[in-house]
Design brief:
By secondary structure, the chain is an alpha/beta fold. The chain has a single domain, classed as Rossmann fold, CATH 3.40.50.720. It contains nine helices and seven strands. The protein has a seven-stranded parallel sheet, with helices on both faces. Strand 2, helix 2 and strand 3 form a beta-alpha-beta unit. Helix 1 crosses helix 7. It is globular, with a radius of gyration of 17 Å. The chain starts with a strand and ends in a 5-residue tail after the last helix.
């Protein structure tokens, strides 16, 4: 990433801030940090003169267009912005899909030609529940599963011109998104560090913590049992 231009969405969150700090160590020439509330990015400005903060709502095409018009060149897009409404299957909520899938697709499309010109890289943050639905947050899992499929299609498109697409499939992380969930959680810094190191090794699907690695292994060794265990959580709620 040395001397590269980077855009990180959701940079005000725990994982977003961790990505900013880790990427700064790779000596980029410019790091655009975005969030819906630009005031929430104030603390990042002090980290480095290469940081520029921009207001961005990935569900708003006008907002996307404004940001895209301000960035001439882009080498790395980190699609980190996301939401978890913790909604069940028939809770009549499509917010997760609107943000996690549609918003990410819209933003990536807006920068596709610029990434193509630079033979750039995209990092999509999905989730371990993209691979096996956790029904207590069914709509989040559905949105991340759709994003997982989009990432695979995007990787094929990027391969045509020599670009790269990485997918990060973390388990629970110590962020606002998982507050109130009594379970072991990875630290955002550990996730970000693992992602950077995995990218250097050209590992395109990244399982950056113990929970996500467990899901991957059990989907290979005992998939039906894992699905039943995740589904069984509904019985107690």
């Amino acid at each position: 990433m040395k001397n590269r231009t980077v855009l990180i969405t959701g940079a005000n969150g725990g994982l977003g801030q961790a990505f900013v700090r880790e990427i700064l160590q790779e000596e980029p020439i410019k790091v655009y940090c975005t969030a819906r509330d630009i005031k929430s990015l104030e603390s990042l400005k002090a980290l480095s003169p290469v940081i520029e903060t921009l207001e961005l709502d990935i569900t708003d095409r006008d907002s996307i267009s404004k940001v895209a018009s301000k960035i001439e060149r882009l080498d790395l897009l980190v699609n980190n912005a996301g939401v978890n409404t913790n909604s069940r299957l028939f809770d009549d909520s499509f917010t997760d899909l609107e943000v996690n899938l549609k918003g990410t697709v819209s933003l990536t499309e807006a920068f596709f030609e610029k990434l193509k010109a630079s033979k750039g890289t995209v990092v999509n943050v999905t989730s371990a529940v993209a691979l096996v639905n956790f029904p207590l947050m069914a709509n989040y899992a559905i949105s991340k599963s759709a994003l997982h499929s989009f990432t695979q299609a995007l990787r094929a498109e990027f391969a045509v011109f020599g670009g790269e697409v990485y997918e990060v499939l973390p388990g629970p992380i110590e962020t606002r998104m998982t507050e109130g969930f009594p379970m072991p959680k990875a630290k955002p810094e550990e996730i970000a560090q693992c992602v950077i190191e995995s990218m250097k090794r050209k590992e395109f699907e990244i399982y950056p913590d113990g929970f996500s690695q467990m899901v991957r292994e059990r989907l290979q060794s005992e998939p039906q049992k894992l699905i039943e265990e995740f589904a069984g959580a509904v019985a107690g709620h």
